[in-house]
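Objective 1b: paired records.
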Amino acid sequence: MQPDLIKKLFQQHKEPSLFGRYITNGHIEPLLKNLSSKVSLSVIGRSVLNKPIYGLKIGEGSKRLLLWSQMHGNESTTTKALFDLLNTLSDSNSSYSNILKACTFYIIPILNPDGAERYTRLNANEIDLNRDAQDLTQPESRVLRDAFNAFKPDYCFNLHGQRTIFSAGKTNHPATVSFLAPAQDHACTITENRKIAMELIGVMNAGLQFEIPNQVGVYDDAFNLNCVGDTFQSLNVPTVLFEAGHYNNDYQREFTRELIYRAYLLCFDYISNNNITGTGYKPYLDIPENDKCFYDIIIRNTLMDNKIIDVAIQYEERLVDNTVFFVPMVQKIESLPEFYGHKEIDAEGSAVLSADGMPLKLSSENVFVMLNNEKITLLVE
């Protein structure tokens, strides 16, 4: 699959009504009303606050793929890319009609609509749905398990977003996209089932390297049966975790959205054209494991208390009037030689002060700082 072709398809089929980080039922419902006749739509359950949870089915093939997004309500990039994918698959002139002939998709675009509306990881009962796979205490968890049991998927795709702190290995390369073939036992055995998930991730990684060399990572595979991916993997259904991460200056995750779309097409085209046995799993083992080497901003070589230190700024995401703001907060004041900033400022030995001319303090909010009497903004550009 040619990288230029996928880019062209994305440009043609990107859903223009979805943008940025705040995506809720209110944003997708107009799209659901105008779905192609190829897509069947149903309300498959209700959230804690009685919001509908939607299920979409498309395709006629024997290979069955279950996908769910926004299990964590503030992780919306994969949802945007799902609608870009649906636009592509619904296009009768698409180059990838083979995918729908070989595969049937069952898609839950927003599993946690309450969390999406509040822009929080948790549901309305303050429960992390990705730790509720065994107890099934929450209605949203039961909706997903019921879909899994009824649809009987051959593959599962658990779609998430990750913070800007992650690096691909202990490097200055951000983990712009990350994956995981979850473990299915405490020994993290590379089972035949996991090998299939690993093979799929290896294919996606190879394709993504053309766009983001050295910026793909994998998560630690420590086993936790309370997590949905680990549970479904333990039930012998190959399961792939997606994590949409940070690209330089892309805080709205629009370029990452394109990368996730690219990964979808690479993966689903591969599934449609191959009998996957897991024999191609070994490239997965070469993907670097995620580390936490980044802050959003590091101000280097700052004079404070007669010492030269660094100041790390991390954005706190706040929802105000249906808009997500990135609020700069002082996270660390210390020497940070093993960390990187997505943006770095060199104070060259000068003092860096707050807006009121005082030394910076931990956990303080600073929209801008003063450096040599110059006002320097810390806001997202």
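Objective 1b, second protein:
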Amino acid sequence: MTTPLVEASGLTKRFGEFEAVRGIDVRVERGEAFGFLGPNGAGKSSTMRMISCTSPRSGGDLRVLGMDPDRDGPRIRARIGVVPQQDTLDNELTVRQNLEVYGRYFGLSRAAVRAKAVELLEFAQLTERASSEVEPLSGGMKRRLTIARSLVNEPEVLLLDEPTTGLDPQARHLLWDRLFRLKAEGVTLIITTHYMDEAEQLCDRLVVMDGGRVAAEGSPAELISRYSTREVLELRFPPGHQSADRLEDLAERVEVLPDRVLLYTRDGEAALAAAQERGVRPVSSLVRRSSLEDVFLRLTGRTLVD
């Protein structure tokens, strides 16, 4: 067994009387992409701040790169990279200067940071914008620059908090490609995201958090197999006309929503044929594979949490 890069046992974070993280156990192995999923207020960001040594834990045990963040925070921070949820670029500097100045914080020589900046600009596909100011860059460019900046110190672990929030599909897929390249090069990724397709694409393993606790853990495929079915049949009805009458025994689980009924089943086409034989006439129907979003909503609910 190799030593995990991040290991937490009974990890707790309190803010006064409020307990944001309630005794979670987490183990992140070298070279994997590990995800934290959960609704707002689930404790994901609080956990990430403890791992990044920017917020002390309230209880439990935490080791990052084999060290204790309470005692070895500076040594840990020197070996990790952090991509915050909001870009914190220096708008008064050029794209290249953002990389070079940040590299100096880690004690790199001027020659070393200049060479590293060239490498990272190419990695982020920003070479042609090297002399541009930051402010007019697109959201995708700023995000790529933020990730490039986090790699100046060649981190062993890269923490990404909602890395593609607000980006268009093209920018998201380009960013995914950059992250796949980093993982292939041996960088361990720890990601929080609200995008279920992103978690399925990027994460080898993940935990679903809810109310400060871990509700489930496993690979995306394992979680779908454990908490959902192979397929989902969606039957859409006019508002107020949907019900589970005549459908309950056609699936392992039936969920009634304001505009549709979801049937979780191994064979969606067979369930649809059986429903039609019973006189059920939806406005439209769709058979799709079960997804991580189905798991997420089953574990955390559909109610909005502020």
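The domain at 229-290 is CATH 3.30.70 (Alpha-Beta Plaits). Residues 124 and 144 are 6 Å apart (CA to CA).
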